[in-house]
Each structure stands twice: as C-alpha cells, then as structure tokens.
C-alpha cells in the first residue's frame, strides 16, 4: 500500500521526504493511518530497486554556516513502469480496506477497465461482509447497546455498497461515452 502511494505521489511531481509524508497524511489519512517510521525505509527500498532516485542539493556555501540540503525524490522511468504494473494488478489486496484506499487515491492514474474491476471487487467484498453481519445477527440475543452498535455497523456497510454502486455506474457511463462505437 505504501509503495503504491509513494510511487503515485512521485508520479505527480518530485518532492522531499517531508512533503511526501505530509501528502500521504492528507491523501490517505481517511483510509489508513500509516507509520512515519515506515516511510524512510520504504523510500530507501524503492531507491535500491531503481524505482526512485534521490538528489541531495549542495549545501549552501559562502555563509557563516552551511545547511544540509533536503533530499528530493523523483520517479525513474523504471519506477513509472513499476507503478503502472502495480496499478494494473487487480488481486484480492486491491479490495481490502488498506489496498482499496490506496488504489482509490490514485484512480486518476489507473486505467478505466482496472478501476471498474477494483470497484466491483470491493463491492463484492463489502456485500460479503454485510451478509456475514446479517447472518450473525440472526438468532443472537444482544443487549440494546450491542444491537445499536451492530445496526450502526450494518448501516455503514450498506452506505458503502450504495456509494460503490454509484461509482461503478458513473465509471460505466463515462466509459460508454468515451468508447468508440463497435463495428457490426
């Protein structure tokens, strides 16, 4: 998840570590709290793999003291290819809570057919969760607080299914408008 997020952000523009950290918090904050301690090891791993490059500006000279420049990270050509491969992969992790949030945040960089597959897969996953919650409710005796908590969770899941259905319909409508007519 963090790999997709970092590469996706750097695909938009080069930035230094603090900027990446700040953008991750604003971009993914609603989907997942990530550990800042995992960012710099991830940047190092991506750099070692050749997917990002680091530039360390020269420290200022000619002044009473010299400041250390911030490292600027940018996506390499290999990194762009790797990001495209990651965004095109529609495995089960694209539907879970962590993976879906990161994928959704970078849907603008994802092919339309892949977006649709991810949305449909996420909706199936959430519908399965809803069905499981409904089955658990049947036959169980809950006190009123537990029942209220369960109802609140069920309403949240129902709301997500409706939201996903709307996104899927919008995606299909936009695809129909942009797809060339088929020869008959």
TrEMBL record:
Protein's UniProt keywords contain Membrane: no
SUPFAM superfamilies, per database record: Winged helix' DNA-binding domain
GO terms for MF: DNA binding
Protein name, UniProt field: DNA-binding transcriptional regulator, PadR family
Keyword DNA-binding assigned: yes
Residue ranges of domain Transcription regulator PadR N-terminal in the record: 6-84
Transmembrane segments: none
Keywords for this protein: DNA-binding
Upper lineage: Bacteria, Bacillati, Actinomycetota, Actinomycetes, Jatrophihabitantales
């Amino acid at each position: 998840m963090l790999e997709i997020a970092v590469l996706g952000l750097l695909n938009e523009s080069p930035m230094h570590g603090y900027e990446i950290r700040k953008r991750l918090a604003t971009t993914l904050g609603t989907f997942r709290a990530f550990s800042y301690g995992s960012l710099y090891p991830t940047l190092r791993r991506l750099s070692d793999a050749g997917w990002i490059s680091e530039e360390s500006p020269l420290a200022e000279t000619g002044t009473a003291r010299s400041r250390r420049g911030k490292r600027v990270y940018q996506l390499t050509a290999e990194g762009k290819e790797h990001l495209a491969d990651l965004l095109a992969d529609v495995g089960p992790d694209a539907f879970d809570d962590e993976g879906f949030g990161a994928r959704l945040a970078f849907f603008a960089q994802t092919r339309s057919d892949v977006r649709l597959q991810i949305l449909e897969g996420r909706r199936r996953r959430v519908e399965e969760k809803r069905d499981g919650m409904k089955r658990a409710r049947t036959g169980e005796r809950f006190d009123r607080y537990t029942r209220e908590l369960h109802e609140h969770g069920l309403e949240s899941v129902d709301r997500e299914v409706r939201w996903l259905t709307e996104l899927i319909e919008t995606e299909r409508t936009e695809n129909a408008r942009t797809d060339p007519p088929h020869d008959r």
